[in-house]
Amino acid sequence: xxxxxxxxxxxxxxxxxxxxxxxxxxxxxxxxxxxxxxxxxxxxxxxxxxxxxxxxxxxxxxxxxxxxxxxxxxxxxxxxxxxxxxxxxxxxxxxxxxxxxxxxxxxxxxxxxxxxxxxxxxxxxxxxxxxxxxxxxxxxxxxxxxxxxxxxxxxxxxxxxxxxxxxxxxxxxxxxxxxxxxx
Length: 183
Hints:
Layout (H helix, E strand, L loop, with lengths): L7 E6 L2 H4 L2 E2 L15 E10 L5 E2 L4 E2 L4 E5 L4 H7 L3 E6 L2 H9 L5 E5 L1 H9 L1 H4 L2 E3 L5 E10 H6 L1 H15 L2 H10 L3
Parallel strand pairs: 6-7, 6-8
Antiparallel strand pairs: 1-10, 2-10, 3-8, 3-9, 3-10, 4-5
Protein name: Solute-binding protein family 3/N-terminal domain-containing protein
Organism: Undibacterium terreum
């Protein structure tokens, strides 16, 4: 979106850096409107068993220092702001978990159900890794729109965001979430 090759993308977390070239649904005070997010996705801390790394919901301890994060996610910026070294070399949740299992790091912060399901069911990870019970963060994900696309048809984009809010708060949507095992 930065260079105008696409008009928007799904699943974008809000950040000041992204708002320089993107438009997100906003409240009147200028903050992101969570009610018009596509979803909220939890990020969990994954720990290599036998390491001295830990997460208690407030304090992340990582004696080896480096934390694995999927490339391109805002999580890396959040961790850097908190003083951690970040390795963004992993492309997917599975890559991050595999790196942990192979002892390349002791901690990974990964998004989504894929990582949760892999740790719970994949033998490569069950004996080597654990998921901390308390999420690291819950991030609203949006349909972000490029500034030029938004300026061409702001009313249409606002209508789409309003429909997202309506759909997410419908009974049918809640039933789909329950069926999928999401919260």
